[in-house]
Amino acid sequence: MMSKQKQQNIAPNKFTFHGHGHPEPIGLEYIAGAVASSGFICQFKGNWELEVSLPDQQPKLILLSAITSDFHQILQAAHHARERGNLTVLGGYHACGCYNDLIDSPFDYIVIGEGEEVVIAIAKARLLGVWDDLDSYEVKNVGLTKIVRANRVEKLDSLPIPLRSEQRLSQYRIHDLMWPPPSLQQNPALILGSRGCVHNCDFCASSTVWGHGVRLRSPENVVGELQDLQTRFDTNTVVFIDQSLGQIKKWSIDLCNAIKNNVKGMHWYHQSNLTVDRDVIRAMAEAGCKKIGFGIEGVSPDAISRIKPVNPINYDTINELCDFCNALGIFVKAYLIIGFPWETEDTVDEYLMWIQKLRVNQVKISYFTPFPGSRAWEQYSNQLVTTDWSDFDTVKMPVVRNPNISVERYHEIRNLLFKAFYGSPSYADVTSKILRLYPHYVQSYKEFTVFLQHFDMINGDEIWLEWLNQNQAGEIRLVAKH
After folding, report:
1. Which CATH number fits the domain that encloses residue 42?
2. Which residues, at least 6 apart from 1, have a Cβ–Cβ distance to it below 8 Å?
3. What residue numbers bound the domain in which 97 lies?
4. Sign, CA torsion 428/429/434/435
5. pLDDT tens-digit readout, 267-276
6. Is 481 inside a domain boundary?
7. Which residues pair with 64 in a beta bridge?
8. Domain for residue 381, yes or no?
9. pTM assigned to the model
10. For the chain, how many helices (H) and strands (E)?
């Protein structure tokens, strides 16, 4: 294996991000870009806190945004901001999902929806005394808090690019299985090519912020932001956090062609649906896409049919698509969910069997977590095991009570599933094939191994680990093991 010093250099730390756990405050960065373009001073105080002010003037606006699992930290930041005599504005998924429950919280404003335009209106009103723009919004007084419903930003190209800094970007690394691997990534960043989703899953609360339907940036506009990242930060890795990239064929292909023709040396990762067209995947590969995450959700065919009854997926389709992506040099990550209240030990036995048949390069196994604002929340909020928001990060624990399986047992099951997947002959076969085609990916696997060991996802005696140890220089000489 690698030296201890090397492991320390690339081991996951508090700045690791993967899956949905990105620390770059992209939402606040978009708002900061818009607010700064209107003449206000914007200064980040952390990943969830943005200060908006005028020179030598009090009070200041403190903008706060976070996902549900970070809400306790947001509350503390809001109290401290109030103590300093500032005004507080809350937005983001958690605020949009349960704003009615935040009446006694320390927020002067809670914004429902997209914040760029409405925050400018609030800043003009409270810092400049110009109320005309804010008066055009729907505002509801709840206690001492004003609930403001924002308008959707229809012309995304009109928005300034996010207000980023190299100091923040330089701290991040993607410790997923990725090319380039963490040691070769330079100031990785997040980017949005669209807003909204073409799907309407029960467990997703994205519509509380973006509404229904999809709005698109022009390919030229997206390319401009990618070029800015390269010019100012020398960024070589980005993550598209769109929910619909690949689902709108013409736009997706046009975007990929624009990236291919105008942005060199940029590698990227995005999430998509298994219905994505093969022509789109080819265009993505040519444009630098090195990884796609698919929301498979169910670990077995029966679970898939329960979770996605409208569009059930079979394992043959999944595996064929993954093999197709790997042949083009694209890693595939499968997003899977366990922790549903209908699961039993028999279901677990099925999961252990089926996960070993899955031909992908990486899995993320989350616990079923109904978020405020989703239809799943309406159905399961009275069956929760915990009411501590910090537990709602999808990986700490199952939050919905299952009469058949305890929380402690679920921790064991999740660990067993990881080790069954990464120790399966199918995983070894998939690994050998992509490494034969792309030998330089050996470095990605070596650094990913540190990530897996850090979180105890492998046993340490997997066949493919021997291959990595035998190929220090990246030359693949795979040895069969019987």
Report:
1. 3.40.50
2. 7, 449, 465, 469
3. 25-149
4. positive
5. 999 998 888 9
6. no
7. 49, 90
8. yes
9. 0.90
10. 19, 17
